[in-house]
Every structure is written in C-alpha cells, then in structure tokens.
Amino acid sequence: MHRFIASTALALLSVNHAFASSDDAWAQFTVKVEQGCIEATKGLVTDAKIVVDPFGSESFGLAVVTGTSGSGAASSIICVFNKQSKTVEIGGELDVTVEPTDPAS
Q1: Does pTM top 0.85 for this prediction?
Q2: CB atoms closer than 10 angstroms to residue 14
Q3: To pair with 80 at 20 to 30 A between CA atoms, which of 3, 8, 55, 103?
C-alpha cells in the first residue's frame, strides 16, 4: 500500500512539473510572437498594442497589432509567426473603423 501511495504521489508531482514547464514554454512563445510582430510592424503603426493568441494554430503563432497608421487612422495588422522557422509575416493594414460585413447577406 505504501508503494502505491508513494508512486501515486510521484506521478502527481511529475504531472504538476510538466504543466508548469508547459505554462513557462507557452509564456516564452507568447513573448517571441509579441516581439517579432511588434518589430515587423514598426514604421507601419505607432502606439502599437498587440493581442497574441496564447497558443496559436498547430503551425503558427497568431497576433493582431493595432495602432495609428501614417494617415492618422486606427488600423490593425494581422501577424503570423512560423513556429518551425521562427519567421514573421504580416498582412496589410486593416481599417478598424470599418464595420464587419455579414456573410449571410
């Protein structure tokens, strides 16, 4: 019985350590995506604020950078971070004042 309790406790400690490591890894991943996306959008928007999907997709880190464009309008840029190559790609500036269209209409 003591062996069972000891092995169960050891297994639970291992699981907790794995979750902590995983949380740390995801936090580091989020920082990499944020840094890469802010750097990639420098000069396109000022006063940039970023929202990073904490996990991304299977292959990519995903973020939206929002700030003020050169024309003074609020705009957002979609940023994609390749998890394998660690490269960043950005889309064009999106006018955030435009109302989304209803795909059903």
Answers
A1: no
A2: 10
A3: 103
- How many angstroms separate the Cα of 13 from the Cα of each of 18, 23, 27, 67? 9, 15, 21, 44
Q: CB–CB of 60/83 below 8 Å?
A: yes
Q: What does DSSP say about strands 45-52 and 88-95: parallel, antiparallel, or unpaired?
A: unpaired
Measured CA to CA, the distance from residue 67 to residue 92 in angstroms comes to 13
Buried b / exposed e over 22-43, threshold 16 CB at 10 Å, is eeeeeeebbeebbebbbebbee
CA distances from 86 to 21, 71, 80, 83 (A): 20, 31, 10, 5
Predicted confidence (pLDDT) per residue in 70-101, tens digit? 889 999 999 999 999 999 999 999 987 756 66
Confidence bin at 105 (pLDDT 50/70/90): low
